[in-house]
Amino acid sequence: MNETAHALGASRTLWELVELRAGLTPDRPVLLQDDRSLTFGALRDRSERVAAGLYELGVRPGTVVAWQLPTRIETALLSFALARIGAVQTPIIPFYRDREVGFALRESKAAFFAVPGTWRGFDHAGMAHRLALELPEPPLVFEAYDTLPDGDPAVLPPPPLTGRDVRWIYWTSGTTSDPKGVLHTDRSLIAGGSCLAHALRLSSDDVGSMAFPFAHIAGPDYTVMLLLYGFPAVMFEQFALPDALEGYRRHGVTVAGGSTAFYSMFLTEQRKAPERPLIPSLRLLAGGGAPKPPEIYHAVVREMGCQLTHGYGMTEVPMITMGAPDDTVRNLATTEGRPPEGMEIRIVDGEVRLRGEAVCQGYLDPAQTAAAFDGEGFFVTGDLGHVTESGHLVLTGRIKDVIIRKGENISAKEIEDLLHAHPAVADVAVIGLPDAERGERVCAVVEQPEGAQELSLGVVTAYLRGLGLSVHKLPEQLEVVEGLPRNETLRKVLKYKLRERYS
Predict the structure, then answer these.
(1) Which residues form the AMP-dependent synthetase/ligase domain (predicted)?
(2) How far apart are CA 470 and CA 408, in angstroms?
(3) Per-10-residue mean pLDDT for the chain, 503 residues long?
(4) Which of 74, 107, 176, 232 is the most exposed, having the fewest neighbouring CB atoms within 10 Å of its CB?
């Protein structure tokens, strides 16, 4: 990390970071969207005016404000305006509906709720007013899509001085139970973004991209990186390929990504015209949020002609480890990278535990917080892995993804990594299903590329035998699907839905 970025990374609050960057490079762009752009100076000035408008509405330091907004310049302005006031903000993914949104409003006790009106055919304002009627203390609902509150910054109190108070409530994506409200501070988000920035070896000449919901924990993670290094990112309100390619090319994006599913989508487009670069300016794909099979790494480097670095993070700890572009091929293909200074990783009975500034403060529910940390203050992740001699983290799966067949533990990830290399497999999820005789049986659910001959269980098991997989790990059930169920943020496969479907 260069000296300027290192100094900025020590900022006490996100607003202090905005002010410092605006003072250094006020005229450089920070956010690009379609034919619009916002400079670092305008980010500071316009956010302060929005903060004044919110203050006149009644938002004060500590006021809980929920917002469910798409990835837009206006969303970033609203979020930084709330940071200027020192409000507690709780971002909600735009694709969530009544159950998840109602839960978030109720549990956070939000006093205000910003929505986009009708967006992508769904009436968010109508849902918000409907849910407000069900709450004992309904939030004030307002639309913040094209038009934001505006006021005179002279009315504002001084900005917050400490970044160690809880000012963010993020929501884990619920599976079969309600989501958890994850508590973050400005400093934990700055620490996460600093880790990402340091690992990727970026410079002020780069152009990044946000193809994920800004309401995801990756939103501040990525924005902190922009503020530290002073380069812009292209925002995509609706990400879909090939339509989004024009934006990448027009703005000369050098760094793209999101998660493993995004890598696969870029590869699919590249294979349609392998003779020319998909995005001529692109030099790096980077992301996290879901396991990366080694074959995906090799395919990106070989076919797209750019580097791929992958990392490990979660809502509770936005950045834990990250691959560095100048690392070895083996480490980039088979590990999640190394942790930054200040992130402690401890392996207890094969499980990954974490302690450091980027770790959340816990959950809204004190009982969930107590269960999430061990006696020495390490966060218990539920992920399995080990640390190599070089300090790289290797993830081997989730505890709940360990399949126990006749008393033997089987790693779903091991089988998935092998199947990813099969030419007739576009993506795969391996799950354990209840079995009266075996306890659990191994089931592979496969999504195939267009035009591929349909796989059979015999072909799959023969292929895995040929790669030396132990017989007791071979799938006993194969399901071929048009598309694996995914969430709407980083396109992570929802295995619980597959277990429900095939159990």
Answers:
(1) 21-364
(2) 12
(3) 82 97 98 97 98 98 98 98 98 91 96 97 96 95 97 97 97 70 97 90 95 93 95 96 96 93 92 97 92 90 97 94 96 95 94 97 96 96 94 89 83 91 94 86 95 94 91 94 86 87 91
(4) 176
Whole-model pTM over 0.85: yes
* Whether residues 103 and 173 fall in one domain: yes
> 73 with 113, same domain?
yes
Residues 212, 174, single domain; the answer is: no
The residue assigned the tokens 């300090």 is 391
* Parent domain of 448: 406-502
Q: Tokens for 397?
A: 């799966």
Whether 14 maps to a domain, the answer reads yes
3-class state of residue 460 by DSSP: helix
Q: Measuring CA to CA, which residue among 356, 15, 73, 386 is closest to residue 236? A: 73
Q: Which two tokens stand for residue 42?
A: 């305008």
Spell out a b/e string for 477-490, using b for 16 or more CB atoms within 10 Å of the CB, else e.
Answer: ebebeeebbbbebb
Rounded CA separation 167/352 (Å): 27
Rounded CA separation 65/113 (Å): 6
SS3 134: coil
Distance CA 258, CA 103 (A): 27
Query: Same domain, yes or no, for 181 and 221?
Result: no
Greatest pairwise CA separation for the chain in angstroms: 72
How many domains, in total, are found in the chain? Answer: 3
Q: Report the CATH number that the domain containing residue 101 is assigned in CATH.
A: 3.40.50.980
Based on the number of CB atoms within 10 Å of its own CB, is 450 exposed (0-12), middle (13-18) or buried (19 or more)? exposed
